[in-house]
Design a protein that fits this description.
Strand 3 and strand 4 (75-83) form a beta hairpin. Helix content is 25%, strand content 26%. It has an eight-stranded mixed β-sheet. By secondary structure, it is an alpha+beta fold. It contains four helices and eight strands; from the N terminus they run E-E-H-H-E-E-E-H-E-H-E-E. The protein has a single domain, classed as Gcn5-related N-acetyltransferase (GNAT) (Aminopeptidase, 3-Layer(aba) Sandwich). The protein binds coenzyme A. The site of coenzyme A has 22 residues, from strand 5, helix 3 and helix 4.
Length: 163
């Protein structure tokens, strides 16, 4: 699954979006550690960082996670996602949990996050995202701009997007 640039004519297409691979793990981890205080992820002990790396190479490395790369090859951003099989109800379609997202500082406000999420929307499955109450990036404001609505899930309050 791939996407090019942005969907806004006012923004330059300076990045492309594709599926995350194992080979992206180290570069994606650098961006994740950079944005961690904003998410916020507070435990960045060596053990916690090793667990994040294992998650990127393990459960996050699936057909739903995407990465944005700049023209110079830098990782501009990522959206780690996974199929929320644990929460499936009989007869209901599976849904995708958006876990962590991050856009490197030089690439923010250029439509990278919008393009990452729009790429995952191409699966035409419901998406949900939990926003931590102390998130420092206004995610509760940003997600509705992409068509998400506030709702609930077994895990508590979340934002939903449905195809
Ligand atoms: C949140 C984050 C992913 C946004 O990425 P981005 O690529 O800069 O976002 P986009 O440029 O795609 O913007 C998407 C929309 O949100 C708006 N937006 C972006 N940052 C915003 C902010 N801090 N406050 C309010 N709105 C914002 C944009 O104006 C845009 O709206 P529009 O298209 O209707 O004009 C990025 O700031 C980031 O990495 N933050 C740190 C990590 C984090 O908090 N992750 C979320 C929890 S896992």
């Amino acid at each position: 699954m791939q996407n090019q640039g942005t969907d806004s004519p006012s923004r330059e297409a300076t990045f492309s979006v594709r599926n995350l691979t194992m080979a992206d793990a180290a570069s994606a981890l650098v961006v994740l550690l950079d944005v961690a205080p904003l998410i916020p992820i507070r435990n960045l002990s060596p053990e916690a960082v090793a667990a994040l790396r294992a998650a990127i190479e393990g459960p996050f490395c699936n057909p739903y996670s995407v990465i944005a790369t700049a023209q110079n090859g830098d990782v501009a951003g990522f959206q780690f996602a996974k199929l929320a099989e644990d929460f499936e109800s009989p007869g209901e379609p599976p849904c995708i949990k958006l876990v962590y997202t991050g856009v490197a500082a030089p690439y923010r406000c250029k439509g990278v996050f919008r393009c990452l999420v729009k790429t995952i929307m191409q699966h035409r499955l419901p998406l949900f995202a939990e926003v931590l109450p102390d998130n420092q990036s206004n995610m509760a404001t940003i997600l509705p701009r992409l068509g998400f609505v506030a709702g609930t899930h077994l895990i508590g309050p979340v934002f939903w997007w449905r195809p």
